[in-house]
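User: Can you recover a sequence for this backbone? Please restate the input before giving your answer.

Assistant: Of course. Working from this structure:
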């Protein structure tokens, strides 16, 4: 029988101090940085995915304990397990709703960009695709950086289905956000829209590019040809 104690023991056995140090630097865990205080074991995501599959039957109560851990990989594996359970629950509407509610109620623990990017599109985005999406606009005004990133990354699922309206609504609401990680997220999602419909992306950009933070704009126009990129950056569109 899988237990959280067995999972903890397995993760400790897999820990790598050198990799943990590298990850701590990569995810900006220093004082005043976005990942301040985050702790790492030094386990790569592909290995965590293998463990998650073996422990995919953990109860939500145990998943919650993992999600509130100070250790990044434990929060990551909580979300990997939750995602596996959600994928199995797609045809079980009540359980899918339960997982969505669990995610939303504990969303502030999805507190680094990789955790958000892994889980928000395929849990929150998938669920909201057939439900009321108004909550996304509410989240754009949250004081928590990661909640705002969830608001922008959840619509990635919509974009992959060829529906762009809600993603663009969220992007517009986040244009004046102060955080660089939000600038990157918005620019990335605009680029993803452009991969599928360049006309839609450019219509949005022509209305808003002049007031977009530089990082956001650079991410959004990354796939444009050089002449067009320069024109946008110079404000000559």
């Amino acid at each position: 029988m899988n237990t959280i104690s067995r999972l903890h023991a397995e993760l400790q056995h897999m820990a790598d101090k050198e990799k943990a140090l590298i990850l701590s630097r990569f995810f900006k865990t220093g004082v005043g940085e976005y990942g301040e205080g985050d702790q790492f074991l030094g386990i790569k995501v592909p290995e965590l995915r293998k463990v998650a599959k073996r422990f995919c039957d953990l109860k939500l109560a145990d998943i919650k304990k993992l999600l509130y851990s100070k250790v990044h990989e434990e929060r990551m594996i909580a979300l990997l397990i939750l995602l596996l359970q959600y994928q199995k629950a797609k045809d079980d509407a009540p359980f899918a709703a339960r997982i969505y509610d669990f995610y939303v109620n504990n969303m502030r623990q999805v507190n680094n960009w990789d955790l958000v990017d892994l889980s928000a599109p395929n849990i929150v985005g998938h669920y909201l695709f057939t439900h009321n999406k108004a909550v996304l606009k509410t989240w754009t005004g949250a004081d928590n950086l990661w909640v705002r990133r969830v608001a922008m990354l959840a619509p990635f699922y919509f974009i992959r289905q060829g529906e762009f309206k809600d993603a663009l609504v969220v992007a517009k609401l986040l244009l004046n956000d102060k955080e660089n990680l939000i600038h990157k997220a918005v620019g990335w999602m605009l680029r993803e829209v452009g991969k599928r419909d360049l006309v839609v992306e450019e219509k949005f950009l022509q209305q808003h590019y002049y007031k977009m933070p530089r990082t956001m704009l650079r991410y959004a126009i990354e796939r444009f040809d050089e002449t067009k990129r320069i024109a946008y950056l110079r404000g000559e569109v």
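That completes the design. The first helix runs from residue 4 to 14.
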